[in-house]
Design a protein that fits this description.
CATH superfamily of the largest domain: P-loop containing nucleotide triphosphate hydrolases
Order of helices and strands: EHEEHEEHHHEHEHEEHEEEEEEEHEEEEH
Distance between the termini: 59 Å
Number of helices: 10
Low-confidence stretches: 247-275
Structural class: alpha/beta
Radius of gyration: 29 Å
Helix content: 25-40%
Number of strands: 20
Mean pLDDT: 83
CATH architecture of the largest domain: 3-Layer(aba) Sandwich
Number of domains: 2
CATH class of the largest domain: Alpha Beta
Strand content: 35-45%
CATH topology of the largest domain: Rossmann fold
Length: about 425
């Protein structure tokens, strides 16, 4: 590809891990003078990736997936064991907290040191020095040794140096998560300026929303292998499916969960004795309107919760309730058939009713739902605290909690305003 900025070709990186290190002569004698054993660990295994000029690529993966090793190979900090990396243009990397800083030097001295390492003459650094200090907001600390800087100050100075050295390619490895929220917004703003200027950006982050909102493409690494790439929504889907498959950080929604009677937690309800519980859950199923072969639904899909229940005797005025909670157990929504305007008389035997959520507005996350059956006057017949779970993945770029239909229109321009003022 002739217009590439970064071309990673079949790169593998091996580290030697030592086991059983013997620190004393006694330990060596006990073990017969044997050397400590070693094990090969492949942090990257035959990874190929091409980043085009002006493209912003986000790299996703669990801890230990090889993300940081890949960036270090791209920046030249590490040499690949196999394969090669080609970089076209001036590259600035912000790889890890304090990387490239000499602890005993001041912030001012480190700015000039980093500039010289990037091939800049002193007069060139002089031109951008004030901009670096202004962006980092460290004017009163710039002549103090960086070994006394906090983690947030490290990030401020490191990012300010990287973006003000006029790079063609900017490489950022997760360190933005250390800064405060206001400074993170400031950094994202500068990244978007770089995008408008047509610069190339490689970004490693655990925040899928960041990849979705600012990246043109996403890449997913797992155990040193490149397992997927595509538009940000697709990359996020692959990443989260991998987490679910490995049981790390996102529970797989169980399509069928048999409800077992449990003690109610809703305050203020009267609970009937077992002999007075005429209606009980038998099972609860959830069905997505989209692809039911995958354990999640997309934002905008319909969700149906199918409730199978049994009435031991004909029971009038039965009310079914539904509560949806987020991953922190915060209530997202509660409703019931009375609020919806349904009147249900349960005949004796097994029956089925549905709760339907049309065009799911929730964005990314795993959610749980609780369900109850009660009489019209509040006597609880049955309650299931954990009736089921469902996972939602957002295929678009909208971030936050809910998707809303938002429209924008330009009503007037400055020339329109000037014209109307002149007519007045």
């Amino acid at each position: 590809m002739s217009d590439f900025a970064v071309d990673v070709r079949n790169v593998s990186k091996r580290f030697r891990l030592a086991h059983g290190q013997y620190k004393t002569v006694k330990e060596r004698l006990i073990h017969g003078g044997k050397r400590k054993s070693t094990e090969d660990f492949w942090a990257l295994d035959d990874v190929s990736l091409t980043v085009r000029e002006g493209e912003t690529v986000g790299i996703l993966g669990r801890n230990g997936s090889g993300k940081s090793t890949l960036l270090k190979c791209i920046c030249g900090v590490l040499q690949p064991t196999d394969g090669e990396v080609a970089v076209r243009g001036k590259l600035a990397g912000l790889l890890e907290l304090g990387a490239g800083f000499q602890q005993d030097l001041t912030g001012r001295e480190n700015i000039y040191l980093n500039g010289s390492l990037m091939g800049m003459a002193k007069r060139d650094v002089d031109k951008v020095f004030d901009a670096i200090v202004d962006f980092s907001e460290l004017e009163e600390f710039i002549d103090g040794p960086v070994k006394f800087y906090s983690s947030g100050m490290y990030v401020r100075l490191g990012f300010a140096v990287a973006v003000n050295m006029d790079p063609d390619i900017l490489v950022i490895d997760e360190v933005l998560a250390v800064g405060d929220e206001r400074f993170q917004r400031k950094c994202i703003g500068r990244v978007k300026e770089f995008q408008k200027e047509g610069r190339t950006i490689l970004l490693v982050t655990h925040a899928a929303d960041t990849v979705r909102s600012i990246c043109d493409r996403g890449v997913v690494l797992s155990h040193g292998h490149l397992v997927g790439e595509g538009d940000p929504g697709e990359a996020t889907r692959i990443f989260r499916e991998g987490l679910m498959a490995e049981g790390a950080g996102m529970a797989v929604a169980d399509p069928t969960l048999v409800a077992v009677p449990a003690a109610p937690t809703t305050v203020g309800m009267d609970t009937a004795a077992d002999t007075e519980r005429p209606v009980r859950f038998r099972s609860v199923h959830r069905v997505y309107s989209g692809d039911n072969s995958v354990p999640y639904m997309s934002t905008g899909d319909d969700l149906t919760i199918r409730v199978e229940f049994e009435a031991l005797i004909p029971t009038p005025d039965v009310v079914f309730s539904l509560e949806i909670r987020d991953g922190d157990n915060n209530m997202v929504m509660r409703t019931d058939t009375s609020i919806i305007g349904m009147s249900i008389d349960a005949p004796r035997g097994v029956s089925v009713m549905h709760f339907g959520i049309v065009k799911m507005p929730l964005l990314d996350g795993t959610f749980t739902f609780a369900m109850g059956i009660q009489s019209r006057d509040g006597i609880l017949y049955d309650w299931q605290e954990s009736a089921g779970t469902f996972a939602v993945m957002n295929p678009g770029k909208t971030t936050g909690v809910l998707r809303m239909d938002v429209h924008a229109a330009l009503i007037s321009t400055e020339s329109d305003i000037d014209s109307s003022a002149a007519l007045a």
